[in-house]
Design goal:
Layout lengths: L7 H25 L4 H27 L5 H7 L5 H14 L7 H6 L2
Helix pairs in contact: 1-2, 1-4, 2-3, 3-4
Length: 109
């Protein structure tokens, strides 16, 4: 089985991973700080829907052979969006589960 090669969809996976991590961090801040029930609800819904969208996007990228399935597994760990950000960085820096020639493709805008 050939290894995936990050392409244009992988760039969107990376962006959505970082955005979802920021929303998750905001949710944690509002949840831990007393008196922000409305903000906690808004960030909770945003995180829930964003996380589902992120998982679907990674799954589509894996089916299209633009991301390894291990990235989806890393995203579905208990740490959630942090797992996807770590997985994306491992792919870009170490070539984790992707073809050797993919490094230049993943860096293109």
């Amino acid at each position: 089985m050939r290894k995936p090669v990050p392409g244009r969809l992988f760039v969107w996976v990376k962006r959505l991973s970082w955005l979802e991590l920021a929303v998750f961090a905001g949710l944690l801040v509002f949840w831990l700080t007393p008196g922000f029930a409305a903000e906690t609800m808004v960030f909770g819904w945003a995180h829930g829907l964003g996380f589902i969208a992120l998982c679907l996007l990674i799954w589509i990228a894996a089916v299209r052979r633009e991301a390894p399935y291990t990235l989806l597994a890393a995203t579905l760990t208990p740490v959630g969006p942090l797992g996807s950000v770590i997985g994306v960085e491992l792919i870009e820096r170490r070539g984790w589960g992707v073809a050797e020639t993919s490094q230049k493709v993943a860096e293109s805008p």
